[in-house]
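Can you make up a protein sequence with its backbone structure tokens?

===
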Amino acid sequence: MPTERPRDTRHREIDAIVEAKAGGVAETRDEADKYTVLGAASRRTFANWLTPIEEHFVCHRNDIPDADADAWTVSLTGGLKGTLSMTDIREKYPTVAVAHTMECAGNGRGQHRPETGSVQWDCEAAATAFWTGTPVSLILREYGVTESEGQWLTTVGGDPSDGDDIFARSIPLEKALDDCVLAYEMNGEPLPREHGYPVRLIVPGWYGVNNVKWVEELRVMDSMVTEGSLERPGEHAYWQQRSYRIYPSGSEPDENETVETYDTWTQLEGAVEYPYTFDANVMSLIGAPSGESPAEVRPDESLKVRGVAWAGDDGVDRVEVSTDGGETWDDAELFGPDYAGAWRLFRYDWDTRLGRHTLLSRATDDLGRRQPSRISDPDVWRDALENDEYPWNEGGYAANAYEPNGVDVEVRARDGRDVGE
């Protein structure tokens, strides 16, 4: 099992990233003092479609490797045989850019009661960026991979562990052939070190853990990664088969070589006993007003509510906004860019009144699945979704309840008078 010892270099690394990102991110608590975790410093990040690099969350568990792009290679193994240099990746294949809403699978973990372990994210670990690189499909097909049925692509990260574990994640080969990219640029700039320089796997619409940083190996396999399935020493399967799975307190998930569905919500409904975190559940966040300061309006002036909503591999069909803590709901308008795997903007013009209000948003995907209202108690499991709750789980993964993400807003008159004057 991977070690959870504090990293001596962690705080220096965090300080350097915060400085480089000019205050766009802030540190989030990690119980074990093991991970580097930085989330958006302001809710205002979620009022815009494109997330600046300075505001994009950061999460990794080991030290950033001291990578030299000129010397870096990606090994092709399993059903593949070969090696790619960064020059190969950049120049041998056509270049594409994909929009991707990346959300940490642990986003919302800090909203679980009782608290679970690890990084205590609230809602700050989500972002949308453009990632430029080489389609994985072109590489795989050049090396003879044309059929995807029943096969998996395992990606191994090159970040050095302080234990015996290897960071390896498997995704279905059909997803890899569909829209995945080996990225070397982010928002039109060279890929930053903390985001995976020199090359990172991008899996549009899927939780961040699948988007392996510092890629050093791609392996085509007949199953997901299991213990001992890689031709290298160390522990192979922890980050696929134990961590980043959704299970109730006291459970011990068994290894699976494959699953029939990759849709996280469908797995939660019973398709997989202890679901894997692949594509992101339907989710929304209000970015403005942020609640960080009073909102000021003139008489008869509406207040503009803005936010973002996403649904992994699925589309966002509807966003509703409540300005009274969930008593009543109105439809918001979806607008702006509409890319598969990326969030949509929504807006709602609120004819407000002075005073204090709780704003909520809830999204529904194009399969009719709507965000639940709250996170359940630990003793509720399969019945949670039927009760309009998201199931409390040991790892705090894939939470998408809307009540914990509400925004408390004080509305004042623009002329400076306090409420009640």
In short: The longest helix spans residues 10-20. Helices lie at 10-20, 86-91, 136-142, 173-179, 238-242, 264-271. Residues 62 and 161 are 6 Å apart (CA to CA). The mean pLDDT is 94.
